[in-house]
Amino acid sequence: MRLAWTWIIIDEEKRILLLKRTKYTESFPHYWTMPAWRWEEWETAEVAAIREVEEETGLKFIPEKLYQSSKQKNSWEIVHAHRFLWTWEWTIKLQEEEADWYAWYTYQETRNIKLAFDYADVI
User: Cβ-count burial of 51 within 10 angstroms (0-12 exposed, 13-18 middle, 19+ buried)?
Assistant: First the structure.
């Protein structure tokens, strides 16, 4: 069983941070995505979130409280979602080999863009 982690980063205006995948990504080039990756078996949800959010966005993520967890099975893996209340520092620096742009979208705006994987369902 592989576990995948996805982080929905929402700002104080209730907009979602999305990253645009580069043309070099193996799957879903030029689609919008959220910070995500596979779980390293030694990591807790908090450690994985801190590491991946910083690697992919440069944001310094500080989880303050885990307030909800869920598990969903899609066609190829089980996805665990952990929702944190948190704070961060506001300097975004993208992981260039994976994403070449970012933007903040409202929930309604996410319905009109090409989202990778099953992120339309996740959002």
Answer: middle
Instruction: Give the pTM.
Output: 0.75
- Please say whether the beta carbons of 33 and 117 come within 8 A: yes
CB distance 63 to 46 below 8 Å: yes
Q: Which two tokens stand for residue 106?
A: 């409202």
Write the CB contacts of 13 (distance below 8 Å, at least 6 apart in sequence): 104
Residue 9 in tokens: 């980063």
55: containing domain = 3-122
| Per-residue DSSP letter, 118 | T
What pLDDT digit, counting tens, does each position of 49-95 carry?
A: 788 888 888 888 777 777 777 777 766 777 767 677 777 767 788 98
Cβ neighbours around 53 below 10 Å, total: 24
Total domains in the chain come to 1
Given a contact cutoff of 8 angstroms between Cβ atoms, the answer to whether 5 and 36 are in contact is: yes
Q: What's the length of the chain?
A: 123
Give the separation between CA 123 and CA 121, rounded to whole angstroms: 6
What b/e readout covers 109-119, taking b as 16+ CB neighbours within 10 angstroms?
Answer: ebeeeebbbeb
